[in-house]
Amino acid sequence: MTNLDLDELREELAEFAQPEAKGGRSAREERIIAGFEDIQRFVDEHGRAPQHGEDKDIFERLYAVRLDRLRALEECRALLAPLDRQGLLKGADIGGVGEEAIDYDALAEELQGAAGAADITELRHVRTTADKRAAEEIAERTPCEDFDTFKPLFERLTRDLQTGARITRRIRKDAGFLKADIKQDEFFIVGGQTAYIAEVGEQIRAPNGEFDARLRVIYSNGTESNILLRSLTRALYKDETSRLVTEPDAGPLFSGEADQDDLASGTLYVLRSKSNHPLVAQHRDVLHKIGVTGGDVDRRVASAPLDPTFLMAEVEVVDSYQLFNINRTKLENVIHRVFGPGRLEIEIKDRFGNPVIPREWFLVPKFVVKEAVERIKDGTITDYVYDTATASLVRRKT
């Protein structure tokens, strides 16, 4: 009985709440239907109606108690008859319930073992489902005593988002985001705060038969909460601004082979200029233009002699990397920010004589560019900066 939510178990045994008008059905009717749907899901999964008995799972026994009540109340039978696709209200035999009496005392004793429940008749005087859900989703936050342990994670996340190593994606239930997508060490943005999933507890079975788990969630404001997985999921669905923060690992970003579901995003290219400009000629072997295009690279550079971006000269393609599932603009920003200290300061006249200062040419050896690409792939690029003195990537000073 470890980690069971006793209040919710009590609530499942309680008599349904008093009527509260809402739309076409009262709150009582909505609860009756929801409770019956839980039983139907159990039957779909197990191929039989829930049964009584000490050898049965406590949740199955709870469903069995509920089904007996629904069968006994004419009001419930009338409400649920149109929904009874399995013939449960008629006592259809689908591996069904035996004739043994409901052992309320045994069930109450089992609940008491979980957290000190009293007489089963007292279970009707508990919080409503709406109250419990609201309380759970707010999930009382307390100061995180060991926040210093997590603070560097939030700081690195901020850098990753600034450089484009990570991006955020909108969370939408209809887009296939599920509870299973919430895992340890992931970041989310919910309620205006960045949330880090520090721990995922052992799985527990919820009253509807689905699995749940208790989470330890650390927030960027130095607080934490102990919230249920399903409650965090609901909060993410309800918050129209909630976001999932992607992992820094770009997956097949520069792979020569794409997975079936990958979407081509473009190409990162490395070029060398054939310009006769004295400054270019002096540094030709280490001077490279690094850019990203959504089209064909050869087509992109075809008009290089007429384009000041290409130094008004022919270029040769030194390296290229195909991109998948990536934001091209943010990737280009990452590359340019890392190699910013090595940017070439040069002024070129366009074909009309207007001065132009290209921003994508860097004094960086080819092998260092390749190293940067690898570090973008493994997510470590934000830990490095380009050192012009040694012409190499060096770790940031903390």
SSE layout and pairing:
Elements: H1 6-13, E1 21-22, E2 25-26, H2 27-46, H3 58-72, H4 74-80, H5 104-115, H6 129-138, E3 142-143, H7 147-163, E4 168-170, E5 187-190, E6 193-205, E7 211-219, E8 223-228, H8 229-238, E9 243-245, E10 264-273, H9 278-282, E11 287-293, H10 297-301, E12 315-324, H11 328-338, E13 348-349, E14 355-356, E15 361-363, H12 366-378, E16 384-387, E17 392-395
Helix pairs in contact: 2-3
Task: Tell me briefly what this model is.
With 398 residues, the protein is α+β, with helices and mostly antiparallel strands. It has twelve helices and 17 strands. The chain has three domains: 6-126, no CATH class; 134-245, no CATH class; 264-395, no CATH class.
Query: What's the SSE pattern?
Result: HEEHHHHHEHEEEEEHEEHEHEHEEEHEE
- The count of domains is 3
Query: Treating each run of at least 4 consecutive H or I residues as one helix, how many helices?
Result: 12
Distance between the termini: 47 Å
Low-confidence regions:
15-23, 92-138, 249-253
Bin the strand percentage: 15-25%
Q: Mean pLDDT score, rounded?
A: 75
Number of strands: 17
Largest sheet at a glance?
A: 7 strands, antiparallel
Helix content: 25-40%
| Mass-distribution shape | elongated
Radius of gyration: 31 Å
Oligomer: single chain
Content-based structural category? alpha+beta
